[in-house]
UniProtKB/TrEMBL annotation:
<dbReference type="GO" id="GO:0005634">
    <property type="term" value="C:nucleus"/>
</dbReference>
<protein>
    <submittedName>
        <fullName>BRWD1 protein</fullName>
    </submittedName>
</protein>
<dbReference type="InterPro" id="IPR001680">
    <property type="entry name" value="WD40_rpt"/>
</dbReference>
<dbReference type="InterPro" id="IPR052060">
    <property type="entry name" value="Bromo_WD_repeat"/>
</dbReference>
<dbReference type="InterPro" id="IPR019775">
    <property type="entry name" value="WD40_repeat_CS"/>
</dbReference>
<dbReference type="GO" id="GO:0008360">
    <property type="term" value="P:regulation of cell shape"/>
</dbReference>
<feature type="repeat" description="WD">
    <location>
        <begin position="40"/>
        <end position="82"/>
    </location>
</feature>
<feature type="repeat" description="WD">
    <location>
        <begin position="1"/>
        <end position="39"/>
    </location>
</feature>
<dbReference type="GO" id="GO:0006357">
    <property type="term" value="P:regulation of transcription by RNA polymerase II"/>
</dbReference>
<dbReference type="InterPro" id="IPR036322">
    <property type="entry name" value="WD40_repeat_dom_sf"/>
</dbReference>
<keyword id="KW-0853">WD repeat</keyword>
<dbReference type="InterPro" id="IPR015943">
    <property type="entry name" value="WD40/YVTN_repeat-like_dom_sf"/>
</dbReference>
<dbReference type="Pfam" id="PF00400">
    <property type="entry name" value="WD40"/>
</dbReference>
<keyword id="KW-0677">Repeat</keyword>
<dbReference type="GO" id="GO:0007010">
    <property type="term" value="P:cytoskeleton organization"/>
</dbReference>
<feature type="region of interest" description="Disordered">
    <location>
        <begin position="240"/>
        <end position="267"/>
    </location>
</feature>
<feature type="compositionally biased region" description="Polar residues">
    <location>
        <begin position="240"/>
        <end position="261"/>
    </location>
</feature>
Amino acid sequence: MKPKVTMIAWNRNDNYVVTAVNNHLLKVWNSCTGQLLHDLVGHADEVFVLETHPFDPRIMLSAGHDGNIFIWDITKGTKTKHYFNMIEGQGHGAVFDCKFSPDGQHFACTDSHGHLLIFGFGCSRPYEKIPDQMFFHTDYRPLIRDSNNYVLDEQTQQAPHLMPPPFLVDVDGNPHPTKYQRLVPGRENCADEHLIPQLGYVATSDGEVVEQVIGQQTVDQDDQGLEPSILDGMIRQLQLQQDQRTGADQESASSGLQSREGTPRRG
């Protein structure tokens, strides 16, 4: 097999470069001389995640499709911590992305099964207020394009960024209680009756009929006593300016063509 580099990352002070190779090795290089310093052995599949610690130049995190997450001391070429993402009844979950917190005390990973894994110091009580499964009910809704080739939500015929805030549902499409719906930006101060979605029965790919969120019980912002969104107003204003410029450019091009046609050619 011809070795190929799948990922590369500098450490915090740029003295070292770490490369992930498709033979499942991580290699630590001196960034000034190009000298190979260490081979880091531990992964059993390809690695597409390399994250440096936000302030400690010795620490590098790696995670791969084998479900392994390693914390390395790249100055010594040794493992500091190891975690294997085992999912009961489903084998391991490939880790797709990881990020450190700004203070370096925590890091979070996402895997191929849609899980968010949070590691670090302290208690987990702040994270216990959220349900285990969280999806927006619009996550897998089909999109269409209008005559101007702009993207619209197929069901509501609206641009996605102009739609009301979505509802939180579980993996089966069942909405969460209203206390969780307030976690969605834009729904913090809504009345309880505005946090109840419209439910309907839809057929799954297995032919099973389940109850899912199919729409939203929405009212105008004026009826809710909410101020219009500043961002939405800016987007509409920019779109209007773009349309005006497009119209002006087309008009000038048309007038220029007419003037050229009316100008006699020199012999």
